[in-house]
Amino acid sequence: MSTRVAERTRGFTRQAAEELSHLLGEPDWLRERRLAAWEIYEQTPMPSRTDEEWRRTDIRRLPINDVFPFGDLRDPVSGPEALPPALFEILGDAALRSGLLTQVDGAVVYTHLDPAIAAQGVIFTDLVSAAREVPELVQRYFMTEAVTPRDNKFAALHGAFWSGGTFLYVPAGVEVALPLRSFVWAETAGTGIFAHTLLVAEPGATVVLIDTWASPTVEEPLIASNVVEIIAGEGAQVRYIQLQDWGRSVWNFTTQRALLHQDAVVNTLNVSLGSKLSKAFIASNLVGPGATAEMLGLYFADDAQHLDHQTRQWHVAPYASSDLLYKGALKDRARTVFSGLIKVFPQAQRTDAYQANRNLILSPNARADTIPNLEIGANDVRCTHGATVGQVEEEYIFYLMSRGISRAEAVKLIVDGFFDEVIERVPVTEVQETVRAAIARKIGL
Question: Around 266, how many Cα atoms within 13 Å sit in the side-chain half-sphere?
Fold first, then answer.
C-alpha cells in the first residue's frame, strides 16, 4: 500500500492538528471543531494520581511528547487480500458479515457494504467521507451528544487528532441481520492512533457492530486515544462489541458512551486483552423511559499489563434498567482496576440496576482492585452491586491433573468456565471463538 506522509515532528501541537485537517481535506466546520478540541486539551490538566479517577493508574511515564501525532495516511486498497497479511488473517469469514471497514494507521483503506443493505439507506463508511456526503448527520452527532472533548483530557486530544474513523447510520425501522465489522490496525511505530466510532440507530432500527483494535508489538511506543459514540433512538436495538488486542507497546485510552432513548436496548461487550496500559471510560446514559442497557466486560492481563476500567450507569429517566457484569483474570505481575458507578437521578423512579465485578487471580504477584459504587437520588428503585477477588484453588487444578490433564490445560478449563457466563451472553459465534482462542493464547496453549 502506498502512503501519504507529511513532514511531521514528534509531539502534539496546534500546527499538527491544522496540518492533519489540511491533509484530510476537511470542510471548515470540521476543522473548527478540531481546533476547538485542541484548545480544550491545552486548558485541561494532565491527569495525576491525586485525581480520584486516576489514583490507581500511573501515567507519569506516558511518552506524550515522543510520538508522531498521527499515522501514515495510506491510500485505499482494491480488496481485503491487499491488506497487511497479519490483518487479513483476523478478518474472519466474509459470509458472516454485512459489511467490512478497515483502517490501517491513520486512514481507512477498504470499505464494503452489502448492496441490499445499502439500498435500505444504511451508511457504513469512514468519518471523513461521511462529513462530505451526509454533513448534516455528522454535524449533529459527532462529539456533540454522547462524547464531547470536555469529558476528559484524552477525549479532547482525540477530538483534535482523530483520523479515519467508522460512521454507521441505520435508518428508522431497518434491521441489519448480519453484523458489520470494523478493524483498526496500527503497525507504524512511534505514532498516535485516534480511531473514532460513531453509531447512530434511528427509532426501531436493529444492528450489530463489531469493532476490533489490534497491532503487533513494536519497538517504539504508540498512543491510542479512541472514542466510541452510540446513539440509540426510540425502540432501537443495538449490539456493540469491542475487541481490544493492541500490542504491548501501546498506551491505550478509550472513552465510550451510549445514549439510550425511550425503550431502546443497547447491549455492549468490551474485551480487553492487549496494550501496555489501558484506561477505559465506558458509560451508558439511559435518557429515555423504558430503556435497557446490558454492559458486559471481559479482560485478561498478564506479564506487567495494567488494565483500568471505569464504568458508569447513568439513570436519567424512569422505568429504565441496566445490568453490568465485568469479569477479569490476571497472572504474572499484572494489575487490573475496576471502578463502577450506578447513578440514579431524582426523576428516575422505578429504576432497576445491577452491577457486578468478578476477578480471578492466577498468580501470587498479580493484583486486582475493584470499587463498586451507588449514588441513589430517587426513593423507588432497585439497585444492587457486588465485587469479588479470588484465587484459583490448587485442589481444583490437582483434581483435573489427576485425570491426565496438563496444568496449563487445567487452568484453561477453569478460566473458560469463569468467563463462560459472559461469553455465552453474546450470541455471535465468531466473537465467542475469538475470545476463547485469546484466552488459550494468554494461558500459553
Answer: 35
Distance CA 182, CA 54 (A): 30
CB contact at 8 A, 391 and 330: no
Residue 290 gets the label, from left (phi > 0), alpha (psi -120 to 50) or beta, of: left
For the stretch 242-252, pLDDT in tens is 999 999 999 99
Alpha-carbon gap, residue 258 to 268, rounded angstroms:
9
Q: Which three cell numbers stand for residue 211?
A: 469493532
Say which residues have a Cβ less than 8 Å from residue 309's Cβ, sequence separation at least 6. Answer: 270, 272, 280, 282, 297, 299, 326, 336, 337, 338, 339
- The runs of H, that is alpha helices, within 286-406 are 394-401
Closest CA to 291 of 214, 231, 248: 231
pLDDT tens digits, 59-79: 999 999 999 999 888 899 999
Length of the chain: 445
State how far the alpha carbon of 432 is from the alpha carbons of 98, 133, 155, 379, 428, in Å.
Answer: 18, 35, 30, 39, 6
Mean per-residue pLDDT for 385-403? 91
Q: Which residues of 143-159 are buried (b: 16+ CB within 10 A; e: fewer)?
A: beebbbbebbbbbbbbb
DSSP 42-93: HHSPPP-TTSGGGTT---TT--TTSSBSS--EEPP-SSGGGS-HHHHTTS--
**Rg of the chain on CA atoms, in Å:** 21
Q: Are 217 and 137 in contact (CB under 8 A)?
A: no
Query: What cell does 70 get?
Result: 498521527
Burial of residue 323 (CB within 10 Å: 0-12, 13-18, 19+) is: middle
pLDDT digits (tens, 9 = 90+) for 415-425: 999 999 999 99
Phi, psi at 53, each rounded to 5°: -65, -20
Q: How far apart are CA 211 and CA 256, in angstroms?
A: 12
> What's the pTM?
0.96
Looking at residue 2, its amino acid is S
